[in-house]
Amino acid sequence: MPNVLHALQPQAVWQHFEALCAIPRPSGHEARVAAHVVALARSWGLEAVTDAIGNVIIKKPATAGMEGRRTVVLQAHLDMVPQKAATSTHDFVKDPIQPRVDGPLVRATGTTLGADDGIGIATALAVLESKTIQHGPIEVLFTIDEEAGMTGAKNLKAGFLSGDILLNLDSEDEGEICIGCAGGADAKVAMSYTEVDAASDAVGYRVTVSGLKGGHSGVDIHLGRGNANKVLARLLFGVRRDVDVRLAGFVGGTLRNAIPRDATATVTVKRSEGQAFESALRAAAAVVQAELRAADPGLEVAIESVPVPARTMSPTVTAQLLAALVACPHGVFAMVPGMSTVTETSTNLAIVVAGGGSIAVTNMLRSSVDSKKDDVANMLRAVFELAGATVTISGGYPGWQPDPSSPVLSKLQAIYAGMFNTPAHVTATHGGLECGLIRAVYPHMDALSIGPTIRFPHSPDEQVDIASVQRFWDFLVEILRQTPSQA
Known about the structure:
This protein is α+β, with helices and mostly antiparallel strands. It has helices spanning 11-21, 31-43, 115-129, 151-154, 228-240, 274-291, 315-327, 370-386, 407-420, 435-441, 466-481; strands spanning 47-50, 56-60, 72-77, 99-102, 105-108, 138-143, 165-168, 176-181, 183-192, 196-197, 202-210, 246-252, 263-270, 300-306, 311-312, 331-336, 339-355, 358-367, 390-397, 425-429, 446-449, 454-455, 463-465. 29% of the residues lie in helices and 29% in strands.
């Protein structure tokens, strides 16, 4: 793999990150990267173990004179989100990520970069490798499957860790100290139907929505970007009022925690209504494009003639599915009181796969208030049960409740202000962090999260600010040097 990041600072972090880019590591395929970090740790003479679920725990003794300091747990997740541009042929299970330097940023070519949470992994590895950093006892926890279901954190067992300060390295704004996050759950919709023969006078069309930015369904949900599933359903539902549209298939979105960027539907209409269908659809698309001009200007809607599919949904099932998708809640419901920039409750209409007699829809719910998360779940149940579908809520994980009175937080604030002559911004995130799950097993831990500046995670536009990685590294090194003594 070309050594394209070798000149960046801090050098050790970027070297480890570039090595990670060469190892495919989408969620569910972390074995190679886990073996990589274990091999590195053991080559440095450090204790490294893998637990039953696949998490990796590495321990590094204190440097001389620092043995009496509190033990710090550095935590990052091994997996990354596999999203690619529509034109990319990248295979996330086999192909390396291709990073590139773009002025002040590092990006990937046609795919997610994996800075979420590859920079966290690389930073922890650089700490473990260093012979010069002063620190007390360190434990590093690398979890698996954070992006797809937090399986690693959910299955973490007691007895592996002894630290009482947890520094999660998965935040995405340098200069912020995160002290809380939303909890989440998945709402999965299932429905079966009997296909019918396409009408003898039908013509076929493929309608494709593309060009949307997508993004992280937690940290980007408040930006007002388009959701390809919602846009496509809206267009077809509106046109269907005047044209006899019948769905043969509908596919959109690929990941529960990514705002869908693309969606495609195959439909039939009466031959006599073909021109009216195309005209009405183009007019409706222009309206949506105008609405999204500021937040998502790349929206494209393509209409192609295709062979008539042999079988379609009935008019009733077509109406039920489109109505449910249009009515399905998506986006922000509430902001955190007193923190107007932090989303409190949201949902993402993430994945739709319909055709061949079955319908599956996946929504991801987030809220820092469990009762509001339950309320949104009930909205989803109501919408899809009215359409005759079954709704299952699963994969729930707890939020992480902020503790603004934490003495460790005060220490980090003082360190940051002293280093950079500006106060750190204390906040909470609507994204899902593993701190709540880890603290459920190790409740004595005082948890905080920091990181460099990463923009547009969970999309091919993902980018990391190079200068922020240096500041993040310097801040972490100083935290370790000033870790409080044991009581």
